[in-house]
Amino acid sequence: MHQSTPSCEYGKVISMSISPLFISHGAPSLALDASPAGTFLDHIADTMPRPNAIVIMSAHWLTRDLKITTAAFPETIYDFGGFSDALYQIKYPAPTDPDMVSKIQHLATEAGITIVLDPTRGFDHGVWVPLSRMYPNADIPVIQLSVPLRWTPPDLVALGLALTRLSDEGVLLIGSGALTHNLGALDFKNNPAPHWVVAFRQWVIDSIQAHNIDALCQFETVAPFSKMNHPTPDHFLPILFAAGAGGLQNAVLIHESMELGTLAMDCWKFDGGQ
What we know:
Elements: E1 21-24, H1 36-44, E2 53-63, E3 67-69, H2 98-110, E4 116-118, H3 125-134, E5 142-148, H4 153-162, E6 171-177, H5 195-209, H6 213-217, H7 219-222, H8 226-229, H9 237-246, E7 252-255, E8 258-259, E9 263-264, E10 267-269
Parallel strand pairs: 1-6, 2-5, 2-6, 3-4
Antiparallel strand pairs: 1-10, 7-10, 8-9
Helix pairs in contact: 1-3, 4-9
């Protein structure tokens, strides 16, 4: 994939910048739990301008090539099992926005990126769980991006960079995944996080604070205990999209908590500067 800097000639720039976010969305029960992470998401909208649209990459839509939702009102997908019946009653009927889809396509094309339109895909829980806490009225257009598994980590950074000017037009760019995600090691007694979670999490913090995007892109081979925290890479990859969109120079850790012993619920704001 060819990377280039997005043109500044496209569209009308609205003077309302919104910093890209990485959100650890945890278990689907986050939509209902009275947890620190849930409470944080309940109030985060009060700390930023109201978006004109939300573009969100979820770890739960894994594809060969990059795809984007185009259904007028994507359905709410319950891509999980064994949770409270109340969770399956939640609907998130946010619309998409054809004009925003066209903008995303234009910026991607300028950067040499191809996006496949998907008119049937709904919103998985990596989208509607955090957004149901952040914007419960579902009255802001939402466009979901897939995680393209054929891409390299630098490709995801390049995609974020290609879409970064949307942030200056009042669009909230979100990578929705998990800072740590080993479902086979969940601790339902909620003991303190084990050393392998603590070490990996601190490595991420140190890499971001050092503005080391190359290290983040190589997390599978250079981060301590990477395979224990991410047996598969899908839940870490959305942070690369968000980091590419906002840059690391002014990144801020805006929430930290632990759930089920090994799920680090860290959320980051990437506040500009490449």
